[in-house]
Amino acid sequence: MKRRSLLLGAAGAALLAACGSDTSDAATPGTVTLGFSAWPGWFPWQVAQEKGLFAKNNVTVELKYFDSYTDSLNALATGNLTCNSQTLNDTLSSVSGGSKQTIVLVNDNSTGNDQIIAGPGITSVAGLKGKKVAAEQGTVDHYLLLLALEKAGLTEKDVTFTPLLTDAAAAAFVAGQVDAVGVFAPFTTTALGRSGSTAIATSKDFPGAIPDTLSFQSQFVQDHPDQVQAVVQTWFDTLAWIAANKTEAVSIMAKKGGVSDADYLTYDAGTTIFTKEQNLEAFAAGADAKHLDFQANKIAEFLVSTKLVDAKPPLDGLFEPKFVKAVP
After folding, report:
1. Residues 88-138: tens digit of each pLDDT
2. In whole angstroms, how far apart are CA 228 and each of 50, 77, 257, 266?
């Protein structure tokens, strides 16, 4: 769940874990601390920083990159970030745990970069019956696995589910310790390194199921709307800069992701970056996969059914489209 880094997980009101990234310092006055981790839809923030686009919008932003995505979720939930790049799934988990958060921007939808990858001899999801499948419990790739199994007429009870952190799951698959794995880019590249492996289901098969968003502390949104607006404006300015300077932008993002420029380009189709118009459609109420409220209700059912949360998280006030609407 995008979202995504060397570790991925659903966070409620868990205590902040110290793991590789310094999140202990509170933001200095007037500074927005923005967390992100290894997912193609979030690397544009690195471009924004390196090209001075936050400053052009008169907002001071301290980017905090997390090797552990889970730590970024915990940091926002415990007030150690102003905002964080995270999946809708994980925001709902945090809200269920009591964290007050507001989603102000949809960065992207996963359209292929989340994958269920199977080993030699398994060519379909139906072929997973009786097999050992690894994924990080409660994450978007666990969610994708359940969606794929349901489509194939199976349930999680038809496989031996092995909960592992995403990097460990990919490593276990490559080592032949499990028959299939649910992972996100760039760990898809790792998993597909196993001879004879193939992606038997991807997020492309389930349009709109995995939205990646920017979630703020709700109180900050109320107290500092101008700064929130400047961050949202910077996002769209950054997308325009990337479109005009793709080669340089790819180099910046690939370097941050620890992959080659060529490998980074292979992720393009699997992450659909949202335009302003797609954002507005997502924020609007609706009864299909294009709309955040529809997806939030489906994801909430998943979280409750898998006992990751005790009760459906409240959705009132979770989505705030006014900042996207104000972008020229």
Report:
1. 999 999 999 999 999 999 999 999 999 999 999 999 999 999 999 999 887
2. 20, 18, 26, 32
Query: Could you tell me if 5 and 184 are in contact, meaning their C-beta atoms sit under 8 angstroms apart?
Result: no
The DSSP secondary structure of 27-91, one letter per residue, reads PPTTEEEEEE-S-TTTTHHHHHHHTTHHHHTT-EEEEEE-SBHHHHHHHHHTTS-SEEEEEHHHH
Please, are residues 34 and 216 in contact by the beta-carbon 8 Å criterion?
no
The two three-digit tokens of residue 277, written as one number: 């118009």
Q: Burial of 305 by CB count in 10 Å (0-12 exposed, 13-18 middle, 19+ buried)?
A: exposed
Structure token digits, residue 217: 């502390």
Closest CA to 168 of 208, 134, 143, 141: 134
Tell me: the pLDDT tens digits for 83-92?
A: 999 999 999 9
CA distance linking residue 17 with residue 165, whole number of Å? 15
Question: What secondary structure letter does DSSP report for 18?
Answer: -
Q: Domains along the chain?
A: 31-110+210-325 (3.40.190.10), 114-205 (3.40.190.10)
Which residues contact residue 202 at a Cβ distance below 8 angstroms, ignoring those fewer than 6 apart? Answer: 112, 113, 114, 115, 116, 144, 270
Of the candidates 209, 204, 213, 164, the one whose C-alpha atom is nearest the C-alpha of residue 187 is 164
The C-alpha atoms of residue 40 and residue 189 are separated, in whole angstroms, by 13
- The pair of structure tokens assigned to 159 is 């496989």
Secondary structure element (H or E) that encloses residue 17, with its range: none
pTM of this structure = 0.83
